[in-house]
Q: What sequence folds into this?
């Protein structure tokens, strides 16, 4: 190989940080940058530039007449943020309510999905006949195209022609009238239920994979010492799954908090206030009124919130790891 | 293996309840796709009055489902292949080389895949619209435009997962190849890629699955010309009648390729996912 250090490779953006070292470069030092170049270019085009644009948009009065010609949109400073955070105005109050609903939605969906995933992973930990069938069955909701599963639920949640009301009132004989599930306050229960159905198999998948690395002789040894199953789960399974759980909970939190697909497919154009999750709210605020400046400001606020929560979470988790 | 009664009861109850919860919507989807229209408009019944496959015939006429199918296949495949190829090189660099900016790059990749899609949606839409205004290049309503937006989620995930997978391949393998006179690129192609095949398969499945099911970008970036299944399926209900039987039949048809592919390759997927996640 006759690659000399004189070869200059253009575009190693990542190398711009820090001072250049004095020592001569090794032959082939540019190779990682060349390998990375396509990814860096695409990351710039699809993530960095849109994000910078988004932040810039949030300072503009970017309403319908300016969308096709953004150069003329007037600069309004923090006005969009002031409106979004003024909880006495309709816009601010709507955002605050949507945030509260999303927070409740996230806690319920992530908590229950984790619990179901853990229960299923533990139930399928030991080999028994038919285990593979259940494992495959439980993964189907995750494998289904997201909208197909949600559309099936949408049909099930119809008032008269839906399977859920038929099951509850006709088959199980619940008293009273069949309720609407997709309008009114019940919409919250509906969206939580559907989101759990979609998400728990992912928790199951990750936890099951994590359990495979737990050696079985640990359980046998502790059983000899007289440990009960509950106690084994608490002092063996849970600590060994810590690395998986750390990633799993964070990923599930972010996915759920940002969930757009479930409410969008479930409710379509008519968004019931009880199912007004934040991504859906921002989407509607942007595309129904065509006020992109306001929508961009709300997106930036959402981003800041997620960064703060994730940062605190990771800091807290790392500190606990150091202490342990 | 001896088992206490308590654990046995726990196992049976858990598996039974979760099986019911999982199966009911799938059952409703499959059975409703075989019902006549009158059955899905009146009260629900667990079994059709007459079992028919007519919805599977009619669904292609009510909306141009075949066109949506083609669009979904093209867009999802292109996004998958593109992100896989880019990710192979990037992950090789991250996994095998130490260089300045490495942690900056991997940090950016990791964080972008966590960000809400709606954050990128508005700017990308605006950029696309203004590119059209200024340069006359149409991106909204084209497959190319949709493919670019799909990379926003498939690329970071692919890089992250593949880098984790490459880390799990012993370095001795490619170092031995280099001793034998292979250059870095030949080592990648001859040694790393064959060893990483389960990881590559997992990444490809995941990218394809997410692209196939994507709704947010598709709902904004598509018109009649490039509409995907994700949006197209919703058009059944904008007709004067809601053809629930045809919607369910169409849902079955769009799900089968994905579910079968996933279930056949689930072992690869689990291995690849955990290698990427637990590092």
A:
């Amino acid at each position: 190989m006759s690659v000399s250090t004189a070869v200059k490779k253009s575009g190693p953006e990542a190398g711009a940080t820090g001072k250049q070292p004095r020592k001569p470069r090794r032959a082939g030092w540019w190779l990682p940058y060349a390998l990375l170049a396509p990814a860096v270019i695409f990351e710039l085009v699809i993530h960095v530039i849109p994000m910078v644009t988004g932040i810039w948009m949030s300072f503009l009065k970017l309403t319908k007449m300016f969308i096709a010609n953004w150069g003329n949109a007037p600069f309004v400073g923090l006005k969009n943020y002031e409106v979004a955070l003024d909880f006495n105005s309709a816009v601010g109050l709507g955002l605050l309510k949507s945030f509260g609903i999303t927070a409740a939605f996230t806690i319920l969906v992530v908590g229950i999905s984790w619990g179901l995933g853990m229960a299923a992973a533990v139930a399928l930990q030991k080999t028994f006949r038919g285990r593979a069938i259940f494992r495959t069955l439980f993964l189907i909701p995750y494998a289904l195209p997201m909208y197909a599963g949600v559309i099936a639920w949408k049909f099930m949640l119809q008032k008269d022609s839906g399977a859920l009301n038929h099951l509850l009132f006709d088959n199980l004989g619940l008293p009273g009238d069949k309720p609407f599930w997709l309008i009114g306050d019940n919409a919250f229960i509906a969206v939580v239920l559907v989101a759990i159905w979609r998400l728990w198999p992912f928790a199951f998948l990750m936890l099951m994979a994590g359990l495979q690395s737990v050696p079985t002789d640990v359980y046998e040894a502790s059983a000899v010492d007289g440990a009960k199953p509950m106690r084994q789960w608490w002092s063996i399974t849970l600590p060994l799954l810590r690395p998986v759980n750390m990633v799993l909970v964070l990923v599930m939190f972010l996915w759920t908090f940002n969930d757009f697909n479930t409410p969008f497919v479930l409710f379509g154009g008519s968004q019931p206030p009880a199912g007004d999750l934040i991504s859906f709210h921002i989407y509607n605020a942007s595309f129904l009124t065509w006020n992109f400046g306001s929508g961009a400001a709300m997106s930036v606020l959402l981003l800041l919130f997620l960064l703060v929560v994730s940062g605190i979470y990771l800091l807290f988790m790392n500190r606990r790891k150091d202490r342990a | 293996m001896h088992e206490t009664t308590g654990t046995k009861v726990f196992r049976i109850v858990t598996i039974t309840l979760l099986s019911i919860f999982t199966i009911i919507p799938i059952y409703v989807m499959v059975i409703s796709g075989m019902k006549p229209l009158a059955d899905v408009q009146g009260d629900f019944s667990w079994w059709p009055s007459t079992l028919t496959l007519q919805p599977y015939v009619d669904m292609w006429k009510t909306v141009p489902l075949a066109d949506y199918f083609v669009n979904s296949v093209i867009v999802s495949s292109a996004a998958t292949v593109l992100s896989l190829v880019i990710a192979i090189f990037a992950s090789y660099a991250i996994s095998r080389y130490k260089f300045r900016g490495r942690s900056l790059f991997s940090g950016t990749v990791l964080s972008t895949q966590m960000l809400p899609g709606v954050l990128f949606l508005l700017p990308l839409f605006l950029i696309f619209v203004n590119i059209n205004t200024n340069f006359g290049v149409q991106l909204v309503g084209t497959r190319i435009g949709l493919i670019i937006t799909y990379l926003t989620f498939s690329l970071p995930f692919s890089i992250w997962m593949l880098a984790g997978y490459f880390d799990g391949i012993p370095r001795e393998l490619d170092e031995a190849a280099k001793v034998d006179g292979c250059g870095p690129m030949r080592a990648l192609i001859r040694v790393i890629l064959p060893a990483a095949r389960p990881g590559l398969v997992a990444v490809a499945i995941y990218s394809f699955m997410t692209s196939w099911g994507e709704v947010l970008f598709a709902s904004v970036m598509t018109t009649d010309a490039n509409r995907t299944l994700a949006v197209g399926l919703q058009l059944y209900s904008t007709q004067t009648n809601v053809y629930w039987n045809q919607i369910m039949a169409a849902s079955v048809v769009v799900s089968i390729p994905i579910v079968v592919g996933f279930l056949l390759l689930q072992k690869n997927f689990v291995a690849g996912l955990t290698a990427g996640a637990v590092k």
Notes: The longest helix of chain B spans residues 65-96. The domain at 61-277 of chain B is CATH 1.10.3720.10 (MetI-like fold).
